[in-house]
Amino acid sequence: MPLRSNGHVQDLSGTTVLLHGDLDLQIIEASSLPNLDAKCLPMFSWKSKDSTNASGLIDTSDPYVSVCLAGASIARTAVIPNDENPTWNEHLCVPVAHAVEKIEFIVKDNDKVGADLIGVVAIPSSVIVEGNQINGWFPIRGPSGAPLDTGAQLHLSIQYKPATENPLYKNGVGSEADQKGVPHTYFPLRRGGSLTLYQDAHAPDETLPEILLDNDKVFKHNKCWEDICHAILEAQHLIYITGWSVYHLVRIIREPTRPVPSAGWLELGELLKYKSQEGVRVILLIWDDKTSNDDLFLKTEGVMQTHDEETRKFFKHSNVHCILCPRSASSKLSIFKQQVVGNIFTHHQKCVIVDTQAAGNERKITAFIGGLDLCDGRYDTPDHRLFSDLDTVFENDIHNPTF
C-alpha cells in the first residue's frame, strides 16, 4: 500500500503484520485542528463562540496524541492547551511485539471530564515493516474515515527497526562484553548475577516433579517464603519491601525444612521491628487503598482488605519506615480519569530487597520479585490445600475479598 509523495495514506490494506522490534517515532506538530470546545459554548448563554479563559486566551481544543497498536496505547504526547496548531516535537522509541494491521495516531481534545476524539491517522503496518523512514503530513480523519472539514493534518516521522537486524539483540541482550543491555532503560546492565525460580510460597520436598537440566543436572526446587525469612534474618544493612498488601501479622515460616533461629518464628511485623533494632534500615512501601480509613470519625477496612492502615499504625513510632503510597494518575489525564485511576487501580509492584553474603567480607543485593504479597491468604503449596490444616498451617489465613 503506497504513500503519496506528501505522506498521505491512500488506503488501508488490512494485512496483519508482526512488528517485532523498535518503533522510532517523532510526533512533530499538527495544523488546523477543529475547536471542539466551541461546540459546548451554545449551552451557556453568557458565552460567545470566542469565549476566553482566565488567562485571556480563547478557549479551544487541548490536543494530545496517543499511539495505539490493536487498541493498546504504547505512547502518548503531552497536552498542549488551547492550540489548534500545536507543536509537540516529541521523539519516542518504543519496543513492540504486536501483530497488527496498522498503527493509529489518535488525536484527542483533553477535557476536565474525559477526552473528545478529534480524529485518527492510520499507517498500515505493511508499509512500516519495510523499514523505510516515513516522514510527512498526514490528513486527520474523523469516525467516518473522511478527512476533517478543517483540513487538519498531523506531521509525523516513523521508522521501524526489526529485532533481527538490531545488533544488540542478535545473540541475546548483553551477550557481548561491550553491550549495555536493553537500550533506553533506567539502569545499566549488571553482570555476574544469578536467578532462582520458585513455585508457590512453599514447595515441600518431593511434591514437585523432577526436572532434568543439561549435563545430567537436576533442578532444585527452592522454598520461597522460607528463603525470604532467612534473607531478612541475615540482612545487615537494608530490608526494602514493596507490595500491594503487606500484613504485619502474617507468619512467613510455617513448614520449615531447615533450622530456624528463634526470631524466624516471629510474625512479619515483629521480625522487621527486631531487625530495625539491630540497626538494619527497614523501609516498607505499600499501596494506599483509598477505600480504607483509620481516621478519628471514619474507620473502614477497605474494599480489598489489604490491611494498609493496620500495618502503618503497627509500625508507627518504631524504627521501621512504613509509607502508604496511593496510585496517582498522570497529570496528562483529565480530572475525572485521575479520580478513576486513584480509586480503582492499584500499585502492584511486589519485591523484597535485602543485602546478603557475597564472597569473603563482601555483601551483595538480593531481590525477591514477582507475586510476593506478604499478607494473609497468600501462603500456598503445590498441593493447594483448601480444607486441611486450617487450624495449624493456615490458621487465621482465610482471605477472599472481592471488589
Largest sheet: 5 strands, mixed
- Give me the count of strands: 15
- By secondary-structure content and strand pairing, the structural class works out as mainly beta
Separation of the first and last Cα atoms:
47 Å
CATH fold field value of the domain at 211-294 and 301-369? Endonuclease, Chain A
Tertiary shape: globular
Instruction: List the quaternary state of the chains.
Output: single chain
* Computed CA radius of gyration, to the nearest angstrom: 27 Å
Q: Determine and state the CATH class of the domain at 211-294 and 301-369.
A: Alpha Beta
Helix content: 10-25%
The CATH architecture category of the domain at 211-294 and 301-369 equals 2-Layer Sandwich
Tell me the strand order in the biggest sheet.
13-10-9-14-15
Ranges where pLDDT stays below 50 over 5 or more residues in a row are: 1-12, 41-51
Indicate the mean pLDDT.
Answer: 86
Per DSSP, the total helix count is: 5
- Write down the secondary-structure element order: EEEEEEHEEHEHEEEHEHEE
Strand content: 25-35%
